[in-house]
Q: What sequence folds into this?
């Protein structure tokens, strides 16, 4: 995970956009613990090292290959997250499951009185 962070931040910092980099770093700090949990529960041995592809594309100054490598790296990561979340109790809950009981009673009363649809 540390190598993944370092690789991506090397690219972000190359853009020399300090405000954007701070925003991205904040998002990584919030999302990192979740990613560590998912990656520790998921077999990632079959993943292609897209970082190597990206570095080769940078060395060759091939913007199309770099775009492809980074896009596929992101897609691979999303597939791992989806697989890990669906195989654990980390799956997103439906919105109605997140409403506290008292709010559900209020929502039910509002719906029954014709005040609108249930969420």
A:
């Amino acid at each position: 995970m540390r190598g993944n962070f370092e690789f991506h931040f090397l690219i972000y910092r190359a853009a020399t956009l300090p405000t954007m980099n701070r925003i991205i770093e904040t998002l990584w700090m919030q999302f990192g613990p979740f990613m560590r949990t998912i990656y520790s529960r998921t077999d990632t041995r079959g993943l292609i090292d897209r970082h190597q592809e990206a570095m080769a594309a940078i060395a060759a100054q091939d913007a199309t290959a770099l775009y492809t490598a980074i896009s596929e790296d992101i897609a691979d990561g999303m597939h791992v997250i989806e697989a890990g979340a669906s195989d654990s109790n980390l799956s997103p809950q439906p919105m109605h499951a997140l409403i506290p009981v008292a709010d559900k009673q209020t929502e039910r009363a509002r719906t029954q009185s014709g005040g609108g649809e249930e969420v």
Summary: Helices lie at 2-14, 18-41, 50-59, 63-86, 95-98, 101-112. Residues 92-99 have pLDDT under 50 and may be disordered. The chain has two domains: 2-88, 93-119. Residues 54 and 119 are 43 Å apart (CA to CA).
